[in-house]
Amino acid sequence: QVQLVESGGGLVQAGDSLRVSCTASGGSFSMYAMGWFRQAPGAEREFVAAIHWSGLSTRYVDSVKGRFTISRDNAKNTVYLQMNSLKPEDTAVYYCARARIAYGSTWDGETDFGTWGQGTQVTVSS
To answer: CB burial class (10 A; 0-12, 13-18, 19+) of residue 15?
Structure first.
């Protein structure tokens, strides 16, 4: 059973940068698309970014395009989310997730992901 563990969250000021990481253990990693989602207080969980299992394609929600970058290191079973120019509205718990299907062709919606980490808090002060 694969487990996902996020790290790297914290408290930063608006305009700062932060990188969160997610490391998989106990299961396959390189064959699966990986995604980042976030949930702000009182809000539903939303898609942030995803990366194809090959690492050759990425997707982002419009609100983070140009500021966030998702990447993966299959040798380390780790996916990263580099967040630049952070805004107070980026404050949320950030979750990583592994796609349900190996070598899958759909990987941009919450239902496409079946294994989730416990989340890491990112707080951006104004």
So the answer is: exposed
